[in-house]
Amino acid sequence: MTRRRWLVPYLLMAPGILFLALFFVLPNIQMFLMSLSTKASGTGLARTYEFTWAWENYAKALTDFPLQFSNSLIYGGLATLLCLVIGYPLAYGIAFRGGRYKNLLLFLVIAPFFTSFLIRTISWKIILGNDGAFLSIIRDVLGIVPPNFSILGTPLAVVSGLTYEFLPFMVLPLYVSLEKIDRRLIEAAKDLYAGPMRQGGALIGGFAGGGLAVVLMAGFGYLPLGVDHLPAIVLVAAIGGITGATIATLLVSESFTRIIFPLSLSGVFAGSILTFIPAIGDYVNADLLGNPRTQMIGNVIQNRYLAQNDYPTAAALSFLLMAGILIAIFVYARALGTDELTGGAE
Amino acid sequence: MTDRPTSERAELTRRRFLQGSALTGVAAFIAACSTQSGSSASASTAPSAAPAASATPGASATPAASAAVQTPTGPLHFANWDAYIDLTTIPGKDGKLGTDDDEYDLPSPTLDEFSAKYAVKIDYVNAAIDENESFMAKIRPQLVAGADTGWDLIVLTDWMASKVVAAGWAEKIDHANTPTSVANVRDELKDQPWDATFDYHFPWQSFATGVGYNVKSTGRDLTKIADLFDPKFAGKVTLLEDPHDTFPLIHLMLQAQGKASSNAAEVMTADDGQVVHDYLKPYVESSHIRGFKGNAYLQDFGSGDTWAAFVWSGDLASSGGPDDRFIFPDEGSMIATDNMMIPKGAQHKYTAELMMDWVYDVSRAARLANFIYYISPVKGVAEAIKALDPEAAKNPLLFPPADVVAKQHPQPTWDDASETKINEQYADLKGV
User: Fold this and answer.
1) Which CATH number is B262's domain given?
2) What is the pTM (predicted TM-score) of this model?
3) CA–CA distances in Å: residue B119 to residues B86, B88, B181, B291, B431
4) Residue B384, in any domain of the structure
5) B176 lies in the same domain as B277
6) Could you say which of A26, A51, A308 has the minimum Cβ distance to residue B423?
7) Between A and B, how many residue pairs show a Cβ–Cβ distance under 8 A?
8) What is the ipTM metric for this complex?
9) Which of A9, A129, A295 has its CB closest to that of B305?
10) Which domains does chain A have, with CATH numbers?
11) Helices of type H across B82-131
């Protein structure tokens, strides 16, 4: 057997490679060829596509849908950011303060996955809809909005749906990386006088909070960015800054910033990737919770394939999306540093 | 810290793996490249034969074997939409007929009588067709290959039916076998631009597209398409998902306001579409129109997210709430028809023609209309239905009054170039 040991890895990988080749590589190649085709002949239902090295399909796809590309980037980015802001404290709480209830809490985080993701989105449609709880409170009880106000169809609704869908994808990797941290390091830090985040803590928290507030409000469309809106921007940044500074000084400690957070970066990276990639390509949330102005690239691809039978443009868009995501992840990996990716293992 | 491998071929190094997969990828690329051009060549020869065959639409009639006496063969495979034929009423839990909990199921009296008379079985599949496009996607490969689709009789909406006829995928109907249909079809349904002489289709049921609204939310009655654009309804209006429904209705409204060309709605052009697009765009941008929906508008009406919308005539009456109303707008409405067709390669064509003839008998058509509650394509049903249900005879959904019918237009059928342009305009409105 030792003579043929070189064969063993290939044999072990053969089923996986075959599966990938048949169901991933070949379809991708076929799609790539389709993206370089144009509609050749046939009328109505009997259309065919001819491969003509039509690189202009890519140029057209890149320039025809600026609103949808920017929507995808903004909503995907906001959803990832919100998942991080909500998910990190959640994962931290479960890992460090969970105690006996860790498994139960983790189960509660995963429990929504037992229902179909389409049903979860439809339930958000009902919650945010005219009959739902949210509008009942602010419209009927508090009376601060007019009767034909609606949350459905706003970027806020779409991003809320996206955040809810992908929160477990952020929480679980974060939990895993936080769980791996050696608790004795924190003890050691405390022995070495680690205390509240003294050096510039308020400043960092203020800037982070202010920046986050402005990004969120601008992304949801409630804060137009421009020189004439400077007072509003300053006001939002101030509110966010004060909140951030307060949280930083009161709740964040040095052992967190210097030990826990750097060691958890691999979890942050994994969670962000797992959230960002599907969020950018998502179309169900924009379809059910959005309106014609909040459509994402996924919706364009779906429309081109199924309603307009414009396969070349749709295929070109798919590849552009893939390329964009790969570039973004590459840049992100470089920024975080490859050491952190492996969790500092050496 | 890496040990040198003892044998030269022992380790599967990363370099070798990448080299191997690159080679595999290139090989697969070349293979797919050649099959792609090969298959597109063979696929393009097949449809080029089909338009040639349909190039002589109604000119040369070839009454093949109708001279000889034919016997109906079976079983007849009949695909139809949901609840589109009369069903048997079964008493519900209370055991009594004519109460609210009655249930409806096959068998259908119409089909049963046909079976008895011609001694053929009928394989009627209820809700075999849910959407024109998805059903066509199922039978398209067989039609392209010229094989039997498995169906003898299918029911498709006008715009899809016109494409099927244009692609040459419908069997020519022998009118010697369908005298009742030819005689009884309503005059308003004649002269369809895509099959004026009923060579390839006969209408099954018609449905109207108009304005639906919830009278409690809107606070008033709506009478015109222009009412949808009342600023008080901002954010609570939806239009229909298919441009064949929405664009002509807006075109009618703009014509009434003097802002559109004089092309009739059924022959509106891509330029008319551009005018409609430019009119609707600001309303979409300001979110006055919250979306373009299909049957999902029923849920939106139920939850109150939509107050007024373009809707199909039967839906609100059968599935809406007590405050939902349907009106035929003053500017006019669309009427579309779902049509019976025989797909190419059908095995029991003669039986299918007999079935087309069968349902055009006036009393049978009245019985169908009384159950389905859509607009019958048969002349004289208004009188015949009084015997079954006097209330039904006065229902404007079943029998639109003459002034409404005068303003009803069929859906337009666009050629390839126009349809591409209009789809682009519509996609721009929908935000995709």
Assistant:
1) 3.40.190.10
2) 0.76
3) 20, 20, 21, 50, 54
4) yes
5) no
6) A308
7) 131
8) 0.81
9) A129
10) 65-182+264-297+333-346 (1.10.3720.10), 196-252 (no CATH)
11) 109-118
